[in-house]
Give the backbone structure.
Amino acid sequence: MAIAGEIQKSLEAASAIRKMFEEGAKMKAAFGDENVFDFSLGNPDLEPPEAFFSTVKKFMEERTPRVHGYMPNPGFPQVREAIASKVAKESGVALTAGSVVMSCGAAGGINVLLKTLLNPGDEVIIIKPFFAEYMFYIKNFNGVAVQVDTNPDFSINTGNIEKAISPKTKAIIINSPNNPSGKIYSQDDINNLSDVLRKASKQHGPIYLISDEPYKELIYDGKKAPSILAAYENAICITSYSKAISLPGERIGFVAINPAAADFGLIIDGLVFCTRTLGFVNAPALMQRVVAAIHGTTVDVSVYQKKRDLLVKGLGDAGYDFLVPEGAFYFFCKAPGGDDRAYVEHLKKYNVLGVPGTGFGGPRYFRLAFCVPEKTIINSLPKFKQAIEEFK
């Protein structure tokens, strides 16, 4: 075999999202873009805010020597300081530049962190439903993913987590607002989870709470996502600017660690070393400076909320069963008949593309990404209605 056996297995189990995206491209070529209703990929359709373009232009016109050269692996000191200051203000936890490592997006940050933390066989708890790539990230470093059920409303079930913890548990990954459900874990959820982890850490050694937060700025109806840094000493938050500023292709984010975390200094040193040796070397130089300058700027979230509300009414009127997403840009609907794969295949007959929930640890559900043009949503609603009425 030309490639590693483990990669061969992973390819066979690869993300259904990408497969559906590729199938969507073929359908659009056959039927025309306007006749295919593609809700498969969470690719932001809003352009970055104007502040992004003006800041990029300003920095590109500067001729500061070596500003596009190598810098310390964790990032420009002034960038890390600016981000630490902003995160400290938001969380109420005193952070300095030494608590922040710039990363190549949240995905790069998670991989660098897991490389730093995991010994072979160490366990990482993930809460269902979850971002499908977590399984591969954990496997990258010979860790073991332990899947745990949430409550029926997708809130955290701390009893299930407590049962899942073992002497091999090294970390738990949470994602709020959640992809694929749009759920925001409440302050009570986070506090109760922190209590469980604090108790288990005394018994087994430190268990790190990793919060993957790329959707933290995309929240609706005046809700808020609690700070995990303020709730738990062994907390590590990882984010990117892919969704808040619509920069998924620029691969820029950061890792921020509570200074009270066990072995804080070693973890920071490990992050810096793994950033280098995993081949990231450093986060993109230009984008570091840009996001530090406009940190706190976001796309117009009300546009996404309007799209969400259109689907709430349209899907609800058609008879679909779902919880209204509180953040992010996804619906996680119950599949009529209970077979998510079968219903997603059925939707394709109407040129509607969704993703089966099985890959997210949510069988019997399917995901719709509503980061699409408003006209796509409006024109798709009769198709959703027809599909559910004609499903047998």
Remarks:
- The radius of gyration is 21 Å.
- The chain has a mean pLDDT of 95.
